[in-house]
Amino acid sequence: MLEQLVAAEYTKLGHDHPQRLAAFTQLASLQEAAGDLSGAEEAYRELLGDQVRILGPDHSEVLATRIALARLQGRRGDVSGAEEAYRELLGDQVRILGPDHSEVLATRIASARLQERRGDVSGAEEAYRELLGDQVRILGPDHSEVLATRIASARLQGRRGDVSGAEEAYRELLGDQVRILGPDHPSMMVLQTNLLAPR
Questions:
Q1: How much of the chain exceeds pLDDT 70, in percent?
Q2: N or C: which end of the chain has fewer CB within 10 A?
Q3: Distance CA 158, CA 168 (A)
Q4: Distances from the Cα of 158 to the Cαs of 144, 164, 199, in angstroms?
Q5: pLDDT digits (tens, 9 = 90+) for 129-159
Q6: Which ranges in the chain belong to alpha helices (H)?
Q7: For residue 198, what pLDDT is reported?
Q8: What pTM, to 2 d.p., does this model score?
């Protein structure tokens, strides 16, 4: 149905009209949500070519489509391809948006997660450590993204065998989460479980 809408928009508005690009973006997004990852990737790749040609390579919508493509590569299991896509994207984001932009931080989080998924525990731990310093500086120490990065860092400490370091990190984090979120927040149970088994 949406494919027919995109075709109708194409006929009515012309290939280069911004509304056709918006309809194509929706089509790709819905394909991904429905689990058609290869169809979504194909749609995003076609969209990206049109966006670069019409809007220019530094446009925010081009960057958003590149994020979607990198995410899809990771979801389909192409971890090294996704890592490369995020690495190239990050360089452009820093150049266009600046190093402290929220999208830059989000791409760094995605890259660290892929490193961890690939089994590069020490590389992921280093990436999270560098990210955490920037997050604290930009967002403040009590921001939810800072807490999430601290959880990931503690988990990685445990995975590489530093159980006492992970336990200490979880204890500090538990105190901060109780202070920031309250003792009855749902994440408290998850953190307490991690504290009991930091590996």
A1: 86
A2: N
A3: 10
A4: 21, 8, 4
A5: 999 999 999 999 999 999 999 999 999 999 9
A6: 2-13, 18-33, 37-55, 60-75, 79-97, 102-118, 121-139, 144-159, 163-181, 187-196
A7: 46
A8: 0.84
